[in-house]
Design brief:
Helices cover 60% and strands 0% of the residues. By secondary structure, the protein is mainly α.
């Protein structure tokens, strides 16, 4: 599988969690090692629920396919993240927790995601709205 480095890198919620965590912790671990009040504060600051933050923490090492999807749909990720940050953050959250990544990855590799994403993508409605 070829790495896709030809599209602009956009900071993701997962990147923010990972960066914050690396700065705050001197040992390996997860949000499970923090007091519940601290996790709730972080979630609130990031604009996600505590449950979503914990799910994102578990998925922090998994790559997001959103950048490639936006590229194939001809949606400018940089512009979207600047002009509609809440929508962009929600797209990232939904993408990170998606359970049909194999279909998405297959279509992205084949260059057919723009044709098929509505059949499986939990972000389809939002992606169509911002297109």
């Amino acid at each position: 599988m070829q790495a896709h480095q030809d599209y602009p890198r956009v900071s993701t919620v997962l990147d923010l969690v990972a960066d914050w965590y690396k700065r705050r912790q001197s040992h390996k671990g997860s949000l499970d090692n923090l007091p519940a009040a601290e996790v709730a504060k972080i979630a609130r600051d990031m604009g996600v629920s505590t449950a979503d933050l914990r799910a994102l923490d578990r998925l922090a090492d998994k790559p997001l396919l959103l950048g490639r999807m936006l590229e194939q749909l001809h949606i400018d990720a940089e512009k979207l993240s600047r002009t509609e940050p809440e929508i962009f953050r929600d797209l990232q959250r939904v993408c990170a927790m998606c359970d049909v990544k194999k279909y998405c990855g297959r279509d992205l590799e084949a260059g057919k995601a723009a044709e098929n994403f509505e059949d499986y993508c939990p972000n389809a409605f939002t992606l169509k709205a911002v297109k």
